[in-house]
Amino acid sequence: MIIADPPLAGPLAEGRVFIQCHTEHLRLVPVFGEAALNVSPRIGHVHVTVDNAPWHFVDASGETIVAVGLPPGEHQIPVELADPTHRVVDQTLVRLRVPERPTITNAG
């Protein structure tokens, strides 16, 4: 099972997305392939996609997911828990809104 917390509010207000995730009954480690299916305790990794992009990135660190540079507005970040062969075994969807940021102008 994968559990994702809502993005941290402080960084989100500055346009940075920090999502903390954790798993139950599966450890995140950078080990892949058929043979890894027999490891105990079970191991895997996450697939992270931003706004229905045609690609995703793979993370096996167990660290906070970080996304920067998203434009203001609504966004969706599916986080999928995958086994060592990339078969998705659980998923969660993080919905968030990046706020408009004030523009700084030089009064000169």
Description:
The protein has one helix at 9-13; strands spanning 2-4, 16-19, 21-23, 27-28, 43-48, 57-59, 65-68, 73-82, 88-98. By secondary structure, it is mainly beta. The protein has a single domain (2-98), classed as Immunoglobulin-like (Sandwich). A hairpin with a 5-residue loop joins strand 8 and strand 9 (88-98).
What quaternary form is this?
Answer: single chain
* Number of discrete helical segments: 1
CATH architecture: Sandwich
DSSP E strands, number: 9
Helix-and-strand structural type: mainly beta
| Total of domains | 1
Query: Would you tell me the overall average pLDDT?
Result: 92
Any chance you could write out the topology, listing elements then pairs?
Layout: E1 2-4, H1 9-13, E2 16-19, E3 21-23, E4 27-28, E5 43-48, E6 57-59, E7 65-68, E8 73-82, E9 88-98
Parallel strand pairs: 4-5
Antiparallel strand pairs: 1-3, 2-7, 5-6, 5-8, 8-9
